[in-house]
Automatic annotation (TrEMBL):
Domain of life: Bacteria
Alphabetical list of InterPro entries matching this protein: TPR-like_helical_dom_sf, TPR_rpt
Coiled-coil blocks: none
Organism of derivation: Arundinibacter roseus
Pfam families: TPR_16, TPR_6
Descriptive protein name: Tetratricopeptide repeat protein
Amino acid sequence: MKWHYIRYVNSGSNVFTKASYFLTYYPSKASFVLTRLLFPFIRSCMVVSILGMSLGCSQYSNRPGSIAFHNLTARFNAYYIAQSEISSAEAAMKKKYRDLYTQRLPILMPLDSTMGSQVRPQLENGIKKASIVAERHQNSKWLDDSYTLLGKARLYLGQYDDGVEALRYVFTNGRDEDDKNIALVWLMRAYTQKKDYSNALNVAEYLRQQPLNKVATREFYLAKAYIHQEQGEYLTAVAILEQVFPLLKKNQQAARLHYIAGQLYDRLGQFALANDHYKAVGKNKPTYDLSFYATMSSLQNQVLLDPKVDLTRVGFDKMLRDRKNNDLRDRIYYTMGLLAERRERYPEAIGFLQKSIQTAGANTVQVPYTYLELARIQYDRLENYELAKAYYDSALVSLPPQSEEFLSANDRKKALDEFVTQINIVRTEDSLQQLAQMNPAALDRKLDAIIEAEEDEKQQLLLAAKEALANANRPSAADIGVPNLSGNGRRWELYDPSLISQAKMEFVRIWGNRPLEDNWRRVVKDNSSFASVAQTTAGTPDSLSGVSFATGVLEPMKKDSEEWRSRREELRKSVPLSGAAFASSQKREEDALYRLGKIYRFDLKEPEKAVTTFTHLLKEFPKTDYREEAYYLIYLSLDDSNKNKPLWKEKLMTEFPNATYARLLNQGTFGETNVPTAGKPTNAGKSYEGLYALYDSGNYTEALAQIENVLPYFRDHALIDKFALLRIFLIGKVRGRDAYLQAINEFIRLYPESQFLPRVQEMLEVTGQASLPRKF
């Protein structure tokens, strides 16, 4: 039968007739026959279908088939991979990001390009895949989502302009309102990251008027709260944050946001409301660290709400005993230190903070912030500027260089470097002048008391050295040069930056800020041996010669011995007993007070202390050459509501009517300088040539007097900065280095667009006087 149906299949009958025949008479052979009969027909249909799809599935076509094809291809190929890569990168960045719970937490994780660079391959692959949707699937509904992914990835990599452009494209050309809203939320974050709060708030105002779905509403609230948090508007930020909590599930994000809400209420002084949020942290599946800090913050608020409660009884003692908190004990002591400071128990606060550093062990993340707190207490509360400077030095060792705290601490430390120098000069010279006014017998008694204090200090240092030697001889891992990070967590001192910093501060406390040099104990300098002992406190010894550390025996210096008398004469030489020496001491104190006032005003940004210092300068030295500038800076430093402010302006105008500072005050108040009209110069070029001729001939005093008079007439002239530049050189010749540098700073402030500005800024870096300029 086989040859029969094969022949029939190959005959010229209609294909459907053939199929019916074999299905009726030979059903067992149907599959074979149908394949042979229908294959050409199926093949033709597939070719036609593929050809139709290729002609009708253009990415610019609006046909339903084309749109369905591109939706399917875009979603499950390019977009899916891009989303997976970027989500993986976000998860990795979130895992590496570490919240420092003792500091203010940001509501949203910052867009940090440093963290983004660590996941660059995933982000770049996500960008590549998302770009495929933009290039090949223009009619896909996933186009807006792909551009949003592009913008996010660019922002993570620090490519701000490209990221903003992609997000703006979604807003301008997007077809789905929900996708546009999500893109705008990310645009808000981009503006916030660049501190462009005006544009960020403009976007927020637009979104506020749009109908948002639940996801977009949650993200919008978080982004807007973050804007206000970054601007320091904590009340607005926490009010918006309260609207987010009903939209959140119970998870770590909700726990973290409750903790942040508690921090914001703390800053507003609403400790009871803050406690409500700290307690809510434990109900939202927090990490152990977050739960720990929430509990500790709640205890802190209990202390603030009840000032009579004992710090060690409220619950901190229980947390210290809990073995799970062994690696967090430094945070507990840090919090106790803050609370003790708030109660104005400064020695107790310093003790807790020092315990925080000592118990930090290998985990030194909190250490620099503890040093900052110690520096603040020493500076603001105790006015111990030397120790404050040392603590700032220690904090800068470990702070991240790009952090806000590092920048502010570095500025404060630089200011304190010069401040400590000047305050020591004032204290030393003032003490020396008091000693110089004593009668010889009283002076001898005072010098003997200083020597006795030195001897006591030597004995104390000897005991401390013996104890340190005993500790060093105790067996530990340090004996073989290996840091010990196990057991009690004690580390070899040279491996622990916190211990090194403590040792440096102890050295500065005992020996002062000494330069690095050989035989520094025996180097003889003017006033060096007396600088610290001439004050009311005990002095510092020059050496510990003759000390036997093994036996701890130090032969004390006998009073009225040859050695004692020699030491007394050495100290006496530092006292300005002659008229010339006393005048030199007063001049040093006068200069130091002037510099202190300027440091307060410009570097430390403390106008009240600047006014106090300048007032003290004028009281001690009523005829000082710095009167003109002191009057001017006092006037600027006083608040407008202060009734004495006009008096200082009047003093300046009365005593120095034609001075630069008087002219500056007149310009700032009236918009024009009040100058006499008689003899008013009219030709700026000729006036300048005449002034320069005086300068070139060496008649500096006359040239300076004339240029002070003519400057007000040409303040709106194109040559005004040229006059001001010549004035700088004249002041350098007549008034000295300090007035010269002040004139340079005035030029930079008053003429920021001048063509001579680069030259003047270069002059500012030169510490000596300016040389004779060529004609310009």
